[in-house]
Amino acid sequence: MDRVDVLVVGGGFLGCATAWMLAREGADVLLVERDQVNQHASGQNAGSLHFQLEYRMIERGIEAAKLAAEAMPLHLEAAQWWERLTEEVGEPLGVSQTGGLMLAHTAEQERLLHAKAEVERAWGLDVRVLDREAVLAEAPYLSPTVRAASHCPIEGKADTRLAAPALARAAARLGADVQGRCEVVRLARAGGGWTATLRSRGAGPAGPVGTERTVQADAVVLAAGVWTTELGAMIGSELPTIPLALTMSVTVRRPPLISHLVQHAGTRLSLKQAGDGNVLIGGGWPARLGRGPLGEADLARSPEIVAGSVAGNARAAVAAVPELAHVPVLRTWVGTTTVTPDQLPLVGAVPDAPGAFVATGGSAFTLGPSFAQVLTDLVQGRPAGTDLTPYDPRRYRGGARVG
Question: Would you say residue 87 lies in a domain?
Fold first, then answer.
């Protein structure tokens, strides 16, 4: 039986970042990914670095926004991490923090921006609301019908094709064992640690298809996104998550136009232009998840694109940046992500499972570095640098939020 200090389950950005942080502290780490590293949410999202409250956090009003803002300490820590992450990893991650704008087209949306900014500033985020003249001076490519915008100078983007693989390589250079196509099929307490049965899903370092082996670990980190609830059930713990399928599109390359991360206070929208000139269009328009016989989400099936979402997303993009009406879309795809019932992240020790830790939910790509730092602290027996009370998985004991 193989033995490691830490088993990290999930080869997305969060899992790779956690493996890297633990390995650089000298831990013996095994990271396993059921498919390929970066194949799922981390490699399929649009790479936004949102530090303002997003549309989904404010669409139900300012009281809901105040609850979502309880995650702001993680946002602020993540922003600091992203500023230095490229240098510390030693590889390009495509990070650019040139500022973000959340737009308002109506008086009601403008009032919401002011209320939102007041909440964010109370938590320490640098954000201010610009009037029409100031907005168009900051971003002349925007529609002149924009009434106002909240501006956050630390927002930006990262390249989802580069980030997780670079962290996986950085972890491997420090001695971590990173294995793709390797699925956890059993996970159980054993003595003072955990015993995991791993099954190969394809030819590679883990062996031929179906090969099983057992690994013993002192600690287990669940960084598996939409599979979090399933893994929690495997160890008898309630970790409620809601899988979402979201639509994104990318245009052909064009000369530089959009220099900010652009979102909207009145509709689902995120816009940014990659360094190679492609414009990425997203913001949370839904796609259709595959369903099982009882109506449950079937994560093994590819989600389906919904034509109305593609059209709605395009309308929102053109309303914000009219010049996009003349830029052809190259492709549209669907990525999956996960949120929790109360929209706050799920971060901390897994209830009734000593030595197991979890992080998921919320803006998981943006928050990946701060999630990874928290997990590393907890695994190493240190108190987290952030108060984890609002994100404690124990709040869902008995099927309801406790607090």
Answer: no
